Known about the structure:
Four copies of one chain form a homotetramer. Chain A is α/β, with parallel strands linked by helices and 363 residues long. Chain A contains eleven helices and 14 strands.
Amino acid sequence: MSSAEATTKRHLQRPVSCAVLGAGGYAGGELLRILLAHPQAEVVLAASRSQAGKTIDTAHPNLDSNLRFEDVPPSVAAERAEVVFLALSHGESVAAVREMPKAKIVIDLSGDFRLATAEEYALAYGKKHEAPELIPAFRYGCPELARPGELGGATRIANPGCFATGAALALAPLAAKGLLRGTVVVNGVTGASGSGVTPSAGTHFPARDGNFKAYKVLSHQHEPEIAQTLARVASKGTAALHAPGVKPGFELVFTAHSAPLTRGIHTTATVELPDARSDVLEIYRGYFEKARFVKVREGPIELKGLAGTNKVSIGVATRGRHVVVTSAIDNMGKGAAGQAVQNMNLVLGLDEAAGLGFSGLYP
Amino acid sequence: MSSAEATTKRHLQRPVSCAVLGAGGYAGGELLRILLAHPQAEVVLAASRSQAGKTIDTAHPNLDSNLRFEDVPPSVAAERAEVVFLALSHGESVAAVREMPKAKIVIDLSGDFRLATAEEYALAYGKKHEAPELIPAFRYGCPELARPGELGGATRIANPGCFATGAALALAPLAAKGLLRGTVVVNGVTGASGSGVTPSAGTHFPARDGNFKAYKVLSHQHEPEIAQTLARVASKGTAALHAPGVKPGFELVFTAHSAPLTRGIHTTATVELPDARSDVLEIYRGYFEKARFVKVREGPIELKGLAGTNKVSIGVATRGRHVVVTSAIDNMGKGAAGQAVQNMNLVLGLDEAAGLGFSGLYP
Amino acid sequence: MSSAEATTKRHLQRPVSCAVLGAGGYAGGELLRILLAHPQAEVVLAASRSQAGKTIDTAHPNLDSNLRFEDVPPSVAAERAEVVFLALSHGESVAAVREMPKAKIVIDLSGDFRLATAEEYALAYGKKHEAPELIPAFRYGCPELARPGELGGATRIANPGCFATGAALALAPLAAKGLLRGTVVVNGVTGASGSGVTPSAGTHFPARDGNFKAYKVLSHQHEPEIAQTLARVASKGTAALHAPGVKPGFELVFTAHSAPLTRGIHTTATVELPDARSDVLEIYRGYFEKARFVKVREGPIELKGLAGTNKVSIGVATRGRHVVVTSAIDNMGKGAAGQAVQNMNLVLGLDEAAGLGFSGLYP
Amino acid sequence: MSSAEATTKRHLQRPVSCAVLGAGGYAGGELLRILLAHPQAEVVLAASRSQAGKTIDTAHPNLDSNLRFEDVPPSVAAERAEVVFLALSHGESVAAVREMPKAKIVIDLSGDFRLATAEEYALAYGKKHEAPELIPAFRYGCPELARPGELGGATRIANPGCFATGAALALAPLAAKGLLRGTVVVNGVTGASGSGVTPSAGTHFPARDGNFKAYKVLSHQHEPEIAQTLARVASKGTAALHAPGVKPGFELVFTAHSAPLTRGIHTTATVELPDARSDVLEIYRGYFEKARFVKVREGPIELKGLAGTNKVSIGVATRGRHVVVTSAIDNMGKGAAGQAVQNMNLVLGLDEAAGLGFSGLYP
């Protein structure tokens, strides 16, 4: 009996106890929404400093639950729960992880452990990594870009960034075939929920409505994450393991944009192949054959219908040596909470799609 | 006394008589709005088959005018007006131009005369050009990409496409310096007004709201228009003259996207220069030094504030050999009606900015 | 053993077979979405003339199902399915009901059978009712306004209108106490999905975005439906039975508005009570004590978070003799498909909330 | 020669010097936009504490001007400018007015001087008025509700609230005829710009997008302002003069709502007349016959097309004794900066519409 099978069996008897730190924010709320309806999970802690004492429907009016936010240290979360989700601000996760060395399973939604080295982190985030020694324990949790079973039994997961998820999924099939060379151009477009629950100039309705703009041009912190992921897929066949020093054989130019919508990441990747080829669509279909959340199609895909889901839509178009791949995800779903729960499912040997069955609304 | 000076003097005495064909649509309405407030213009005809007999505020509730739509043939328009604006559907302008050989000045907002040859037209629009012999009389009217005075005295203007305007302005300074090589990637994003006044699946509010998608991937009709314009700027120093056979020294990949907003075209162009250089921003500032509607800046630009104006915002960012240029225009303004009036002003030797002084709203 | 209990037991063994007529539209798609995930239902027919032959994800990209639309007459639907949902245009349901006299259970989402008499129908819809003899068989299916168990065993259900649902739920507690007198003012605001899947001038994105307006002022067809419902609640203690001739003891003025959003009905009802009273909130809490989908609160409620759910939020504020009650629902959920499935559940003696557990997204 | 004529003549020679305090906010920016293009005005000061030293296009990217924000006390503004506009937060205007007793003309856009007495102010705003002695000098500046010429020569203007403007204009014709009795119900809907430039929970894009809600139910500070205005129109024939103790002969119930749009106030007023009458539309047309910014029509009006204008659209519908009046304005235009400039024009004897000619965009 494999470890995964054993885990599964165990969970047939009792639910997985889950804690969410940073439960008052948008990603935290989405985690609660999914976990509260997850057939094999039980939320034992919704931790939030700012919301402490309030019922969770104060911050998340969509949730009907008697649960109250608590202000407890990470160590308490680790004692109470088998799985601790960190939906904290970038930089706060490092401290939390350090405070709970005995935590069984930690799934971190921040950017703190996504890059393989403290050096890359410093370049991307513009500050020193506070605990480089903790990085190697983390696996990069984009299940579609890992080998089958590879995430099973993991204890520390770095959940990918929203833009990074959309971009890496759009390009991984080409990376795996060694077809990414020269300059690879990726344009990402995000909804306002990606900026979190705290109001700011960029998410002020009068400024966002009817507007569209690029931001952090040539300096977005997800660019090195995307490059690292694709480099690993190309050289190792998996993005799951932090492998310092893996360099991409191409130059990535990623530009982030903000659009007047609430949820979603749309990615447009433009690639010049070494040679013209007619099998690009097949390459994508083959690569994602067993990916239950990914739908590949020729022609247009769209954001509509993905909010609240863990789904990925990928559209492929080819003309001679040029390929334009578009991908669409919900930044709160596959780009954050959905993927985190997918990771939990895989780590514990549960059904990968458990708790992630919502089909989305259209319109 | 130059011809332009003569024209100007003449117009100090009486206003320019203008006719708008297709006046019931969005571009037609925007032309009427600008022309009705233009200090040297007089609208003598608002032609619309579908709205004939109604006052113009029926279709354009923002306009206070006693003018009524009329259903008259193009020849009548040409008799009545010194300048005939064609705000017709793609394909209808050819017929209209053919029917009014004696028209003094025709400014066509459709795609019918934008490409230099019937062959290019057929490739881009997927149908035969009905009057190739009429093409050479047209000048391509993007004033910022023409030589000073070059449009003065022209009698037939092909007004550029909205995406084409945004993209060509974003890249012309590099084209002029011979810096466009290899693959040039352009992503355009449009508001829904670009699809016109007729409701359709793509502009249905429930489908557009909260959505974002690419469309006509690798097959948009503005791609060859952009390539042609930049090729001319590179080889001839102007985009104004239809010069068949001018080929770009680069490969353009243009992807159009639709966003949930009403007005605006945002363009993100990603270019790999032959060599790293630090003077890109200066190149742009120099190129547009005398362009009164263009603002160049380092860093982010945005759509907000441009609706109703003829302005162009351009943002430049450089990293080694890579340049990301973003541009923003109002698709109805600089991308259509505003540019058409700017062209009229130049053709007639009026102040280039006459009637185009609206500063935009923010927010 | 009651009939309802018998039904329930039967369904423990096999799922309820369901057919959706008009399955290509928005309400039809929402019905499919709910029914495909309903633990005790099976969709055996998705009928659509315009989409016949296509898989349902063509019209409803959110749905993953191999089901194909079929173009079959209502009689075939009635043979195949135990429950036939009619998501047809107003006026088409009459014909469908006439064509399937042997249908076991029919739940009609149109306005065809919502009013008690052909006379009221003619006044409200401006045309003759084609089959007045069919009306009496229908019960008006707003479960919260029916007596416990009253809908169990029904065979014909007229599903309430979206505005009518929001307004009647906002005022029923006052109606039941005999507190509605004089003029009762109701303002309803709807999202664009209420206009259906077919693009029109009112749902054209450029026209709807940034806009707000009233429409069908003093002539909306839901006004008599609301008045009838409240009159029955006041005089009969239930809205479920078509009781011709029941007149309200008040004058209703209902104004419909359209807002730039996709889903949702927000209602603001302003009432002048006969006397000042301090127990209005308690009246509401008491009235809806057992209503599982209704949440009553003091102070503001909002649309956000309700999309895709069958929930109702009600906010109550009082000042002297004046009461302002606001309610919020999803027009596609509690205002259409959600309520239809709730009705099915009650008719068949299933758990009222079966298949309606989605908690909504926030944001 | 009347004083107004004298003023006009004087201004033919030199422009009116204007100062804007609070110039960094939305209302301040809109004032700058209008005044910079006003043919008879000159902006001599844009005062802002937070933006001091920056050019005005930093806060208002739509404006092309070399003007810089300055941080100067109100007394300096009064010395430099003939007209001082106060676009300050509620409560700050009192202090500013106190600090510049010698100011020639002050136009205050806050709520500080809109109510006739300190008692009413305390009730509406929940705090003590800091300078009741200053109130009587102010005239209430809603030109359409003042007598011809009444505002000419005024030195202190309280510019009406945005909701108050929309509501008072919708009901004044009935008030003037003595037709408002019993309960009068007004529902107002606002865009997010009304909350100002500072981001907050209510204007956070993810929370506002797709949402609609009432707020400050039965406690909005504009309710007494509307009641006061209509009471004065009914009893005095003008709203311009602060007349303490004028009580309305009706009870107003005003409910404010927030909608997912940037600009606009839509008002729906529902009135029960003493008797049925068929001349309501004529009453409105007569009342506003000479109001250059008001358009009265039977049937629907809308917000679209009003952004940036000083226009008012009023729609009238009648059924028996019930009247539903809808009105639409731009909250930043007629609801704030536009009306303030209209007031300046009238005070100085300029053309009422000077600088207010922008016709709006559609779509």
